[in-house]
């Protein structure tokens, strides 16, 4: 009987020998390739000189090869980092990657899942086989169809192996509240950065996909619960939002790595992935035949989200004009799960007004689902080549809209130096009462938007029976198309079947249920001929009990008398009922509500001090001489919004400003009570009002720049009024990615901005950051030529940002780096 320990040592020795042999071959091959490349380069340069050609012909390929080399280095770094994260243990992750910690570190409701990763490693070969079949049978035909639109025919998978490295579960969360007793809902933070081996043919090009990476939040729903084995009727798997997907192209298809073609292929793969696994699309796995499939595959809408993209302002300028920096040609893309909507493009503006409306159906398990908007600058391009520039993006959780009923607010754009977008989001509930239809129709008429819906139709296509055969007694390859208004949904194709079973569900937003029809066609894929037709008047559902019709057979026109279509339908009226409950959450406040709360606090404090509290001797009083001096300085220019003499010491109960003096340049910051200062601050440079707050669930620091008071005039010259704006950095990272900037206020010493900015920063990293706020002017300041009029440095470790904190801060002289 052999010793397992000796066998293991012998296997290790064999692996070492094989690795040494492969490394020697690799070294010789790499040396030969490198030598040939250099010989070819010398030959090309020599030929150019010998033939007296212009060196200008050599520059474009040199630049292109350098760009490609640098791009590949970046992709290789991302791949190695992701794979190292997947294979590393928890101690290495915490020690070396503090900025990319798993969700269980920061969120106490997420649990560690190392035990699940070990199980996943064992069953990965079986999952590998299942996914390979799924891609070949379902995803590949969709990719072929999508690539044909880009004039890329002949796509074919030659090899599809997902490799040895399984996905890693970073954290897992189980929901208890807001869920039915008949289901279990799990959220898994998934990262896949495996060693996949995928080769394909695209026309005459042979290539492959390597270093495929995917990261996102995967939701698993187990339902319904049973009292007999297997205890659960089925499993639903889907991503709430589009996961991050990246990959590299290798082989002859390496030419696709150039701008344009790679983006087109990546876009197609992402879209087809979303069609199968991003909400509202789900992967459904029945575990028993005793449960009707309709329970698992029927769409379960919870409501409808209505989105109004009103306008944007102060966007970045991305176009280049003849006279220098031009404006932008902005358009917006709204994304909810796998659904996308696009506004029109407005040319040559940084303050576009779209007035765009869209609606999307929200599934029952929508908590955690985001409504995202990204704004782009349109540039002329060819199909598939992405040259549009990102102007910023913003997100909000659908659950917030459901709780509040309506959110009407300005959202600060992320991934942008400045810019805001105005959105109105409304949550519409689903009513079974047909009497609510009249109120819904009146509401859409008041909105004066013809594309708005008043009802939601849910259709579940179960099967068909006794479809007619084709000539020669051949059974058809049939699929079904269902159309309501301008929206058409299609089932999968059932091969050679006169009794096809589809078991697929769809949802349709209906504008006029009293007049609209549901049009259904059963089509043979081989010949394109229509096998059967059904026209159903949606108004018939309004007379049914609860406006539902379940598992009913319907006669098909243009077919035999025995041909039937079995399906279920339900109709729901869209109804606005306001918020579900009062939500007192400061992180949900928009700028308008925050302004009202600050003004209410200020008025209360001012009133209480004026009536019940004697004036403190420390408070600096404004003398008649100072008032007279201010009046003389302003002269006759009363309309220029010059500095006001206002004693703001009445904020002493609620604020404690932090600033850096000239003698204290270290990040250790001093605090000073504003009651002992003048309204222009200690350095007579003015004051700025800010609100800071930190959202733990979203890992975001939010800074609201409200207003500035009493900026001084250069040399007391009333004809030289500054044009102020505010610039922010999150130190120590003083670069363009942490730079934020407000709009410029022309000729104003007391500007009001009320602009909100956000930084994505982990809770563990927050206490090591300093927020630098600089008040600048477009005009030269004093005699130094600098544009910085004053600064504030806020050490975030010394400020309680767990709730919204509003304060006035004295501006101090600029601190040079």
Topology:
Layout: H1 4-50, H2 59-87, H3 90-96, H4 103-106, H5 114-148, E1 155-161, E2 168-174, E3 184-193, E4 197-202, E5 205-225, E6 232-239, E7 244-251, H6 261-277, E8 283-286, H7 293-297, E9 301-313, E10 320-321, E11 324-325, E12 330-336, E13 339-342, E14 353-363, E15 370-377, E16 389-397, H8 398-404, E17 406-412, E18 420-431, H9 437-447, E19 455-465, E20 478-484, E21 487-490, E22 501-510, E23 517-524, E24 530-537, E25 548-555, E26 564-575, H10 591-612, H11 624-634, E27 658-659, E28 670-671, E29 687-695, E30 700-709, E31 724-731, E32 740-741, E33 752-760, H12 763-766, E34 770-781, E35 786-795, E36 805-810
Antiparallel strand pairs: 1-4, 2-3, 3-5, 4-5, 5-6, 5-7, 6-8, 9-14, 9-18, 10-11, 12-13, 12-15, 15-16, 17-18, 18-26, 19-22, 19-26, 20-21, 20-23, 23-24, 25-26, 27-28, 29-30, 29-36, 30-33, 31-32, 31-34, 34-35
Helix pairs in contact: 5-6
Summarize the structure in words.
- There is one protein chain.
- With 817 residues, this protein is an alpha+beta fold.
- It has five domains: 46-80; 114-291; 303-431, Sandwich (Immunoglobulin-like), CATH 2.60.40; 455-575, C2 domain (Immunoglobulin-like, Sandwich), CATH 2.60.40.150; 686-811, C2 domain (Immunoglobulin-like, Sandwich), CATH 2.60.40.150.
- The chain is built from twelve helices and 36 strands.
- The strands form eight sheets. Strands 1, 2, 3, 4, 5, 6, 7 and 8 form an eight-stranded antiparallel β-sheet that branches.
- The longest helix has 47 residues, at 4-50.
- The chain starts with a helix and ends in a 7-residue tail after the last strand.
- Residues 286-411, 433-558, 684-809 form the C2 domain.
- One of its GO terms (biological process) is endoplasmic reticulum-plasma membrane tethering.
């Amino acid at each position: 009987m052999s010793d397992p320990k000796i066998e293991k040592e012998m296997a290790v020795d064999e692996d070492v020998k094989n690795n040494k042999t492969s490394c020697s071959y690799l070294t010789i091959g790499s040396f030969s390739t490198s030598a040939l490349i250099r010989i070819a380069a010398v030959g090309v340069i020599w030929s150019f000189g010998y033939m007296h050609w212009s060196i200008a012909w050599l520059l474009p390929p040199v630049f292109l090869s350098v760009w490609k080399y640098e791009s590949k280095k970046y992709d290789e770094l991302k791949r190695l980092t992701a794979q190292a994260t997947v294979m590393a243990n928890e101690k290495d992750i915490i020690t070396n990657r503090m900025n990319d910690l798993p969700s269980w570190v920061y969120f106490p409701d997420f649990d560690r899942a190392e035990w699940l990763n070990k199980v996943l490693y064992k069953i990965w070969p079986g999952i590998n086989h299942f996914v390979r079949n799924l891609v070949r049978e379902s995803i590949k035909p969709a990719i072929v169809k999508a690539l044909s639109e880009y004039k890329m025919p002949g796509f074919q998978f030659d090899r599809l192996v997902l490799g040895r490295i399984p996905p890693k579960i970073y954290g897992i969360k189980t929901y208890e509240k807001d869920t039915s007793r008949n289901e279990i809902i799990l959220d898994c933070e998934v990262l896949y950065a495996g060693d996949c081996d995928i080769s394909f043919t695209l026309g005459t090009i042979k290539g492959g996909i390597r270093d495929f990476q995917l990261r996102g939040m995967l939701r698993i729903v187990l339902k319904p619960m049973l009292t007999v084995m297997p205890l659960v009727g089925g499993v639903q798997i889907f991503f709430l939002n589009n996961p991050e997907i990246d990959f590299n192209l290798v082989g002859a298809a390496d030419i696709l790595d150039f701008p344009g073609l790679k983006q087109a292929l990546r876009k197609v793969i992402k879209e087809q992935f979303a069609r199968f696994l991003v909400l509202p699309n789900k992967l459904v796995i029945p575990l028993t035949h005793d449960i009707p499939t309709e329970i698992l595959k029927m769409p379960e809408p919870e409501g409808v989200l209505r989105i109004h993209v009103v306008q944007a302002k102060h966007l970045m300028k991305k176009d280049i004009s003849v006279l220098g920096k031009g404006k932008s040609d902005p358009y917006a893309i709204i994304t909810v799960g796998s659904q996308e909507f696009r506004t029109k493009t407005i040319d040559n503006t940084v303050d576009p007004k779209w007035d765009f409306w869209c609606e999307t159906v929200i599934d029952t398990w929508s908590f955690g689902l985001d409504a995202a908007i990204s704004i782009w600058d349109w540039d002329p391009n060819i199909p598939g080549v992405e040259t549009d520039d990102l102007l910023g993006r913003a997100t909000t959780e659908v659950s917030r809209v459901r709780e509040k009923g309506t959110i009407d607010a300005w959202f600060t754009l992320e991934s942008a130096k400045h810019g805001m977008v105005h959105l109105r989001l409304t949550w519409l509930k689903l009513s079974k009462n047909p009497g609510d239809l009249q109120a819904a129709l009146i509401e859409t008429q008041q909105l004066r938007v013809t594309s708005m819906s008043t009802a939601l139709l849910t259709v579940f296509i179960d099967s068909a029976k006794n479809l007619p055969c084709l000539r020669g007694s051949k059974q058809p390859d049939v699929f079904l198309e269902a159309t309501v208004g301008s929206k058409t949904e299609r089932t999968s194709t059932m091969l050679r079947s006169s009794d096809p079973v589809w078991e697929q569900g769809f949802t349709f937003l209906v504008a006029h249920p009293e007049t609209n029809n549901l049009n259904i066609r059963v089509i043979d894929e081989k010949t394109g001929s229509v096998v059967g037709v059904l026209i159903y008047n949606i108004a018939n559902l309004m007379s049914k009990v609860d406006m539902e019709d379940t598992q009913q057979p319907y006669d098909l026109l243009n077919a035999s008398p025995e041909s039937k279509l079995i399906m279920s339908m339900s109709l729901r009226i869209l109804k606005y009922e306001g918020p579900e409950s009062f939500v007192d959450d400061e992180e949900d406040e928009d700028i308008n509500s925050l302004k009202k709360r600050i003004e209410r606090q200020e008025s209360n404090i001012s009133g209480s001090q004026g009536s019940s509290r004697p004036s403190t001797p420390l408070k600096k009083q404004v003398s008649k001489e100072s008032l007279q001096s201010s009046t003389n300085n302003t002269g006759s220019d009363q309309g220029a919004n010059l500095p006001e003499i206002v004693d703001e010491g009445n904020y002493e109960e609620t604020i404690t400003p932090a600033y850096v003096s000239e003698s204290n340049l270290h990040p250790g910051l001093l605090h000073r009570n504003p009651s002992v200062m003048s309204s222009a601050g200690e350095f007579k440079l003015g004051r700025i009002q800010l609100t800071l707050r930190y959202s733990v669930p979203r890992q975001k620091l939010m800074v609201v720049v409200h207003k500035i008071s009493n900026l001084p005039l250069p040399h007391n010259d009333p004809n030289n009024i500054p044009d102020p704006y505010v610039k922010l950095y999150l130190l120590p990272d003083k670069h363009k990615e942490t730079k934020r900037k407000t709009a410029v206020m022309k000729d104003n010493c007391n500007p009001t901005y009320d602009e909100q900015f956000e930084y994505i920063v982990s809770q563990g990293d927050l206490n090591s950051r300093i927020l630098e706020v600089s008040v600048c002017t477009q005009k030269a300041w004093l005699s130094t030529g600098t544009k910085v009029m004053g600064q504030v440095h806020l050490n975030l470790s010394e400020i309680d940002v767990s709730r919204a904190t509003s304060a006035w801060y004295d501006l101090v002289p600029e601190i040079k780096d």
